[in-house]
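This section describes the prediction task in plain terms. A model, or a person checking by hand, is given the sequence of a single protein chain and must write out its three-dimensional structure as a string of tokens. No templates, partner chains or ligands are provided. The sample shown here is typical of the held-out split.
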Amino acid sequence: MAKILLVEDDPRIANFVTRGLKAEGHALDVAATGQGAMTMMRTAGYALVILDRMLPDFDGVTICRQMRSENIGSRVLMLTARDALGDKIEGLNAGADDYLTKPFAFDELVARIEALLRRAPVTRFDPVLQVADLVLDPTTRQVTRGGRAIALTPKEFGLLRYLMEHSGAVLSRTQILNNNWGYGFDPNSNVVEVYVRYLRTKIDGVDEKPLIHTVRGAGYRLGT
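The expected answer:
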């Protein structure tokens, strides 16, 4: 039994697909927004994501690119009302594995799902990141400092990875917000400051040299 995530904001389509796939024996979760889908994918492993191209917050292509950048290896079947060749190519280039145009027959949806599930999972090996004695392995999602294991939430891990990928550079609050929470997130939120504080508590120990620095009026920098 495969675990599948359906990302679809149309309640009629979501209900139709949910009933059908559960009858086929699949375990199914549903998300109505791209932001909600990303949160679920970061905390649960899905064999397949059925991804609507047009969502209220993010385009499906943007979500697919974000998945692949975060090493989320679920197979992706993109659903869309757009049938132009250019749209299909854009979706496939973003990391989708297959493309199905609406309206579709349920039997064809099932056939495509089964074909994707027969494939080996997507495996990506990203280079290990290291700044001083802080080490982050994107593949195993393990973080250590001086050999000390550090437990991070998915959002903390994503933020630290972004900082380490740009070590030495000053990243503005807006850059961090857009990369880790998406362009639709409230720009007045203090979520960046909150999560930087969380990371500092875990990364910069009492007897360790601080690695996360605030650059007044500009943003944050990770480095020695």
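For orientation: Helices lie at 11-23, 34-43, 60-69, 85-93, 106-117, 154-165, 173-181, 191-203.
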